[in-house]
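Note to self: the last two entries modelled the partners one at a time, which told us nothing about the interface. This time every component goes in together.
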Amino acid sequence: MAHPSEPEVLDQALSGIGVDEKLLVSILRKSHMRKGCSKFFCEDERQFERWNHTAIKSLKAEFKRFKDVVVLSLMHPWERDARLLKKALKKGPMQYNVIVEIACIRSSDELLGARKAYHSLFDRSIEEDLASHIQGSERKLLVALVSAYRYEGPKVKEDTARLEAKALLNAIKNNDKRNAMEDDEVVRILTTRSKPHLKEVYEQYKKFSDKTITEDLEVELLLKETVECLCTPQTYFTRVFDAALRDDADEDAKKALTRLVATQESEEMKGVATKFEGKIKERVKGAYKDVLVGMLEK
Amino acid sequence: MATLTVPSAVPSVSEDCEQLQKAFSGWGTNEKLIIDILGHRNAEQRNLIRKTYAETYGEDLLKALDKELTSDFERLVLLWTLDPAERDALLANEATKRWTSSNQVLMEIACTRSANQLLHARQAYHARYKKSLEEDVAHHTTGDFRKLLLPLVSAYRYEGDEVNMSLAKTEAKLLHEKISNKAYSDDDVIKVLGTRSKAQINATLNHYKNEYGNDIIEDLEADPKDDFLALVRSTVKCLVYPEKYFEEILRQAINKRGTDEGALTRVISTRAEFDLKIIADEYQRRNSVPLTRAIVKDTHGDYEKLLLVLAGHDEA
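The predicted structure of the combined assembly is written out below.
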């Protein structure tokens, strides 16, 4: 078997998610690889091979993953969530799904802890920051989601759940006339009811529609994610892992890998993650991979 | 400052329980004993008494009290004996029920309690009613009232002193604009009242007065018949100067023909271990008569006695 050429080795070390540090170190001294590696180096008109600008950007992101996962996993969960929320808010609408994820997947006390940490870190409450920085139709929903302190007991009222499933169906049907995300009843139900109750609402909904709530909400992505996180978190995790590990995954999707593995201690997440362990070992590299796999195997 | 007084040498819990049990036994009830004991114990002590009483006599102290007492005195004893979190949860729950519904009480609890006190009330609500306060408030209120009350009860406000003065300026201007257009339930008004810290709101209102000449409260008096506007006014008072709010409630309760015992009981029992002294001082300042004297004039019997004890009035 022929030895892979140095450019091929470089390519191998730097592609995928994360960076294969060992492989890199083994070929670092050799300078011939620049000529053969058009992925990373391009011939400049002044006769030298310069780093491809986009390649550097994505390299930075790949090297950063290890540091991010270390910092995130050593942090207190409350500080972690508070910082993630702040960052998501700063990044804007493309990242609002992170706000939904944290507000809906954490337990009532974990979310409360994040709110406390937010006070300490930023001298403001998360509610006020969300309310002042979000201008769009998601504002009502997102502010209410982070303010929730849901009852966590099993008690559920079937008739109420049925009525509320109907109300949701109505709002979804009228979505073109009035955005379901701004509908008072939709917001009330999704942001105040307990998770067991919402799971019951999810079941009851099937009696009135041949699709599930999440299927009917394909158009309203944020609402769909809200329902997913609250009622069927495994579906959410599966979707996020899948998107992160695809060949054409973008940076935001890949970042989700760090976020999920470093912040989720729930059995549900672990269960989903184990299904992806093979793909992770294949697509992810280096010390970053070791950390992820180590955390999943704990 | 609290008006509750606890003796420096407190009897042991078992002694207290024994005395209480004696107060219930036999013909009639020894109300004086109940007042002497429960009226001079703080929340931690009262909780311990309840726990020990149940262990010793196999009955919930509150149930025993319910059996023995009646009317206004009973309501006061019952509310007082509960610890602050449970008391708030009970009052809030009542306020969402049809016949006893009260947007004002919900707002009062949400705005005059500290962030942690409100949180404890929400936790007590979970334990007692097996649902969250937010779901009940959301379910039982509608329209503008829900729009205001839901954020108020869900808030976990920042409690530090950090204030952003330029934000105060911007928001004072915003409020002035909305109020001038009578847009009292506008999203931005709700945002300020429902999420900002009390210190920040205070700074905003100070700026409002500096800039526009009027106290925001004056500008919120446009329509005396507008219930929602009245609620917004009270919300502002509760957030920024609660003692003035409570003084007004007490004054109205006492001056009302026949007295509003519900309000009187609620204010005395919920503030005695917090800031009733400040409220009483405000009452005297505003009405030229001590609160205790007004209580004596307006109430009687054991109800009056316990009110006075809780208001710090030393009985001879």
